[in-house]
Amino acid sequence: MKRIPCMEAVVQVLASEGVDTVFGIPGAAILPFYAALRKSPIRHITVRHEEGGTHAADGWARVTGNVGVCVGTSGPAGTNMITGLYTAMADSIPVICITGQAPRAKLHQEAFQAVDIVEIAKPVTKWAVQLKEPAQAPWVFREAFRVARSGRPGPVLIDLPLDVQHGTCLYDPAVDGPLPVEVPEPRAAAVRAALDMLMDARRPLILAGGGVIIADATDELRALAEHLQVPVQVTLMGKGAFPEDHPLFAGMAGLQTQTRWGNAAFLESDLVLAVGARFGDRHTGDLETYRRGRRFIHVDIEPTQIGKVFEPDLGVVGHARTVLAALAEEAAARTAVRTPGAWPKRVAELRRTLGRRDDFDDVPIKPPRIYRELNDFYGPDTTFVTAIGLYQIWSGQFQRTFLPRRYLVCGQAGPLGWEIPAAIGVKTAFPERQVVVVAGDYSFQFLMEEIAVAAQYNIPFVIVMVNNEYLGLIRQAEIPYEMNYAVDLRYGEGGIDHVKLMEAFGCAARRVERPEEIRDALAWATEESARLRLPVLVEVMVEREANAAMGRSLDAIEEFEPLPGPVDAVDWSD
């Protein structure tokens, strides 16, 4: 083998693992890595904040299914990345964060910008490690990719002391390659038991979580659902796992991101097959209400997820794709393809009768009208990126999704500011795709400096801002406390003119105040973004005190009449 600078070996490992872009900011303690990077075909995007770099790598990873990479120097660069690592950990996104570090001999002497980033990062990573010897460099990075991809995916942090980066190692890329990642097969007995329960149920649902998308298991999900004619619901992270125009789509249950008819269908179900879902509290709400009257099968690749929130009637450990494929194969062996029965028809009836309005013509604009226009204007291949707040809740309630990896949302951690850098990662990965950011005014301001990155590198996308000049979700949460404290963001009271801000970045923007103007503004922004190869903003001013429909438990409890008696006794032929 040839002896080469160990950072050159690291960069060769990155390229062989399918990394074509990294996001970061150079600094003194990471320059040997950058010296190696500049000799490689890997593209580097210089971000304006290290948190933005982690979110960009996160977005790149979500849309590609590969491992995203972000880079920073020592000290505050690493601590700035912690929010991004937590976000990736919470949503099971494979990311590798590379940090520079002071020389090993200086770590105990409070050297400039030296912090124990490994210990800081351990709670929000699958693995955090400091490279101790140059000879370990390619092998630690190989293991990092394997760990990030294996089981429940997640982030890894690798800390690189400056003196180690200057070292050499023996490495030959011709004899090296990615480490295998196990795709666990389910036990046959567990598959048979799950199918027994599924076929014995009168009103079964399949609940598709984000694990179905991560596992690229959407085809297997659809095959099983269509063979047995079982309606399918999705979680927020599972949006896109099942097309929302499919006759078997059963909406979304939950407290915030939900559909009324989805809650109604869930509460009428008697069995739930949950695949790759965490049973997060914004989905389940009160567990007694959520569990009452139905049995649960929980399928997850991570064994310790099963029983973490509540004990299911059956736990199945396995990769979502292999489990769904095995269930479909077992179902095909037992029964012919079923025709739609009374239960799918009941779900369709709930969908027809319990929808929410989105056709408001009011001025100021009501937020549901924005999502109606987005649904009507953009095609199914559009990739939407959204973050946290009332606009995420409205998006979950009203926005339609048809394909996997086209609806990206920071589901569990919910960091404000996520969407702009994440969209940069998405558009970098797939320059030909239409990318649309849906943001709130306050979230936009958290990492708005990343607009400069998109402008510098000519990364075009459309930003649709839902602006109520409030911290809307916090204002709504304050209502029971009979206060309205510290949430105002009016222009005349410290707020920002977002149109002028975009123009300062060299980008275009338009403000919309009437509902009939939204569609023309979307068309203008889409055309301008493509023509200028820049981000373009459509700022939609909505009524200031618009609230999202949320409750303490599933909101359908008092909104529909439960189905009387066994579902098979109901005649839906009319």
From TrEMBL:
<dbReference type="InterPro" id="IPR045229">
    <property type="entry name" value="TPP_enz"/>
</dbReference>
<dbReference type="InterPro" id="IPR029035">
    <property type="entry name" value="DHS-like_NAD/FAD-binding_dom"/>
</dbReference>
<dbReference type="GO" id="GO:0003984">
    <property type="term" value="F:acetolactate synthase activity"/>
</dbReference>
<dbReference type="Pfam" id="PF00205">
    <property type="entry name" value="TPP_enzyme_M"/>
</dbReference>
<dbReference type="GO" id="GO:0050660">
    <property type="term" value="F:flavin adenine dinucleotide binding"/>
</dbReference>
<dbReference type="InterPro" id="IPR029061">
    <property type="entry name" value="THDP-binding"/>
</dbReference>
<dbReference type="GO" id="GO:0009028">
    <property type="term" value="F:tartronate-semialdehyde synthase activity"/>
</dbReference>
<dbReference type="GO" id="GO:0009099">
    <property type="term" value="P:L-valine biosynthetic process"/>
</dbReference>
<dbReference type="GO" id="GO:0005948">
    <property type="term" value="C:acetolactate synthase complex"/>
</dbReference>
<dbReference type="GO" id="GO:0030976">
    <property type="term" value="F:thiamine pyrophosphate binding"/>
</dbReference>
<feature type="domain" description="Thiamine pyrophosphate enzyme N-terminal TPP-binding">
    <location>
        <begin position="8"/>
        <end position="119"/>
    </location>
</feature>
<dbReference type="Pfam" id="PF02775">
    <property type="entry name" value="TPP_enzyme_C"/>
</dbReference>
<keyword id="KW-0786">Thiamine pyrophosphate</keyword>
<dbReference type="GO" id="GO:0009097">
    <property type="term" value="P:isoleucine biosynthetic process"/>
</dbReference>
<dbReference type="InterPro" id="IPR012001">
    <property type="entry name" value="Thiamin_PyroP_enz_TPP-bd_dom"/>
</dbReference>
<dbReference type="Pfam" id="PF02776">
    <property type="entry name" value="TPP_enzyme_N"/>
</dbReference>
<comment type="similarity">
    <text>Belongs to the TPP enzyme family.</text>
</comment>
<feature type="domain" description="Thiamine pyrophosphate enzyme TPP-binding">
    <location>
        <begin position="388"/>
        <end position="538"/>
    </location>
</feature>
<dbReference type="InterPro" id="IPR012000">
    <property type="entry name" value="Thiamin_PyroP_enz_cen_dom"/>
</dbReference>
<dbReference type="GO" id="GO:0000287">
    <property type="term" value="F:magnesium ion binding"/>
</dbReference>
<protein>
    <submittedName>
        <fullName>Tartronate-semialdehyde synthase</fullName>
    </submittedName>
</protein>
<feature type="domain" description="Thiamine pyrophosphate enzyme central">
    <location>
        <begin position="191"/>
        <end position="327"/>
    </location>
</feature>
<dbReference type="InterPro" id="IPR011766">
    <property type="entry name" value="TPP_enzyme_TPP-bd"/>
</dbReference>
